# Entry
Amino acid sequence: MRFAKVPKRPTDYVTSDDLLHDLLLVLKDVVAFESNLINASNGSGHYAGNGNGNGNGRYNGNGNGNGHHIPESEFAQLTLVIQKITDLYGRLNKRNLDVDQALVEASSQIGLDLKQLLHDCLRFPAVLPYARNLKGLRRLFLCYCGEQEISDRHGLGLCPECLESALECVQEKKKNNKFVLYSSHSPQVRCRHADFSTMLVTFYKPGQWPPAWCEICLKQEKNRLANK
Ligand SMILES: [Zn+2]
Ligand SMILES: [Zn+2]
# Structure
């Protein structure tokens, strides 16, 4: 992962605009870091949360109630990036500069809440800095519907509402405005339980091909969540 190059600026000669510019750059590095962490955990998405501990054993022991499960090298990198943020924010604070306005403007440009991200970075490592959209939802935990968060990243990726709704569709063999039903002769677009005649349900998203689930998938997921 390549980070933005933030120039080393001598304390006395740097303008507040430069410091602010650097702060925004490094905050965007934190945003970019999330995808890096997903790759680092081999796609299993153990950024944090309810890790099931079946990883490669390199996870650090920074569990603090949030249960961070990040590989050590990634955690060290994130720590360095966040130190830069703490430092820049400290320097801006010393000048009594209000960063809120700039953060709000930059947030609306990228659709992510950088003000909250800064706040979370300053509380690191007690809190992991997740990028949140302007509705306050963590980007990594968004359901396919985009309206709610999922409870963890180890299941189907459906929020409770969508899980219920999908199950209802498949059980009643009736689509609604969010989901469509199909069966397929192509194994690539079926779940592992299905054959060509199994009814599957998936999100109605023209131009995209979200995963499809059968009744067993959905019931198993419901069970898993109920027994967490
Ligand atoms: Zn949903
Ligand atoms: Zn299935």
Remarks:
- Residues 191, 193-194, 213-214, 216-217 surround zinc ion (ligand 2) (CB under 6 Å).
- The CA atoms of residues 107 and 114 lie 5 Å apart.
- The first strand starts at residue 179 and ends at 182.
- Residues 16-141 form one domain.
